[in-house]
UniProtKB/TrEMBL annotation:
Keywords: ATP-binding, Cytoplasm, Disulfide bond, Nucleotide-binding, RNA-binding, Transferase, tRNA processing, tRNA-binding. It is found in: Cytoplasm. Residues 147-149 are annotated as: Interaction with tRNA. GO terms for molecular function: ATP binding; tRNA binding; tRNA-uridine 2-sulfurtransferase activity. The gene is mnmA. This is tRNA-specific 2-thiouridylase MnmA. Catalyzes the 2-thiolation of uridine at the wobble position (U34) of tRNA, leading to the formation of s(2)U34. It comes from Spiribacter curvatus. PANTHER family: MITOCHONDRIAL TRNA-SPECIFIC 2-THIOURIDYLASE 1, TRNA 5-METHYLAMINOMETHYL-2-THIOURIDYLATE -METHYLTRANSFERASE. Pfam families: tRNA_Me_trans, tRNA_Me_trans_C, tRNA_Me_trans_M. GO terms for cellular component: cytoplasm.
Length: 373
């Protein structure tokens, strides 16, 4: 892409997008900023502090001497991200809103809006990089393995990657903060955002209970012993330890409790003791809704590595096509807390090939659970 190209940077108010804009301007691009408002809350709390973030984005734009546009994508976000996540939670699965937001909002609604403003490309503060040639673009890991965000970007296809610039590909987070300080950005030491945007720092269960009815039920062991009560299966995820309130069982001292399964038919939450209990371990998984960066994906079994979560250490295994668009992944070593509804993302060395939505987990031999979501 020519350095004279018109690039619109998604300025979020954070330090990563700020430095991305600064780098592109230093490299000779014609740079403008766009602040996206993706969530509108009904209460007066400031968990998603859009106005504070907009003020930070404004300070960065003023320091750089670039225009700052503003767009409200809250309606699209609610319809295409939030409502989908609610359906998944109600079904007992664990969705990843950040992945869906990148697919539907940041690299669709934002990209379309930027093109209407005359942009040739868009840029964000994601830690990732684009390689390859036009029509055969690749999504590559960032140099900083700790910050690499390709897990969240695996749904991007050739159209999106052709129009995307990730200026932070070769930088570490400390280096980004130093550059922001040198550039005079007031947000150079702003803490990283944590949690899901529409929940923020709030209590997860407390927020979801505004949209999902509580359906209390029994907390049981795989053997059928009742050890407590839950508030609703939608509020728990596999591998969860906190919030179970199962302490103090004289007959079951010792190791902490973890969520091992959900029985949606009987409304029972199944728990086990011990971080590495066999019921928490899986030899593999079956996933559907695959998206491949090259638009096709492998037609035969391949040797690959996979991530089950952001910052999850890559796990080697074999990926095999099945029928109806599903694929089976068998790990070299059993993996803990494979959660239906989450994404499994596939890599070949430094390249992110794509990923799918976990549908079924394949328990280790002797596990007391079935693995069916």
């Amino acid at each position: 892409m020519q350095r004279t190209s018109h690039v619109i940077v998604g300025l979020s108010g954070g330090v990563d997008s700020a430095v991305s804009a600064w780098l592109l301007k230093e490299q000779g691009y014609r740079v403008e900023g766009l602040f996206m408002k993706n969530w509108e809350d009904d209460d007066t709390d400031t968990y998603c502090s859009a106005e504070t973030d907009h003020a930070d984005a404004r300070q960065v734009a003023d320091a750089l001497g670039i225009p700052l546009h503003r767009a409200n994508f809250a309606a699209q976000y609610r319809a295409e991200v939030f409502d989908h996540c609610l359906r998944e939670f109600r079904a007992g699965r664990t969705p990843n809103p950040d992945i869906l937001c990148n697919q539907r909002i940041k690299f669709r609604a934002f990209l379309d809006h930027a093109r209407r403003l005359g942009a040739d490309a868009v840029a964000t503060g994601h830690y990732a990089s684009v390689g390859g040639e036009p029509g055969a673009r690749t999504l590559r890991r960032a140099a900083d393995a700790n910050k690499d965000q390709t897990y969240f970007l695996y749904t991007l296809g050739q159209e999106q990657l052709e129009a995307a610039i990730f200026p932070l590909a070769d930088l570490s987070k400390p280096a980004v903060r130093r550059l922001a300080d040198e550039a005079g950005f007031e947000n150079f030491d702003k803490p990283d955002s944590t949690g899901i945007c529409f929940i923020g720092e709030r209590d997860f269960q407390g927020f979801l209970s505004r949209y999902i009815d509580s359906t209390p039920g029994a907390v049981v062991t795989p053997e059928g012993d009742t050890v407590g009560r839950h508030d609703g299966l939608a509020f728990y995820t596999l591998g969860q330890r906190r919030g179970l309130n199962l302490g103090g069982h004289a007959a079951r001292p010792g190791l902490p409790w973890y969520v091992a399964d959900k029985d949606m038919t009987t409304n029972q939450l199944i728990v086990v003791q011990g971080h590495d209990h066999p019921a928490l371990m899986n030899d593999g998984l079956i996933a559907a809704d695959w998206h491949w960066v090259d638009g096709r994906g492998p037609a035969a079994p391949i040797r690959c590595t996979a991530r089950l979560r952001h910052r999850h250490v890559d796990q080697p295994g074999w990926l095999t096509p099945l029928t109806a668009g599903r694929r089976r992944l068998i790990f070299d070593h059993p993996q803990r807390a494979v959660a239906p509804g989450q994404s499994v993302v596939i890599y070949d060395g430094g390249d992110c090939l794509g990923g799918g939505i976990i549908e079924t987990r394949l328990p280790v031999a002797g596990s007391p659970i079935s693995g069916v979501a």
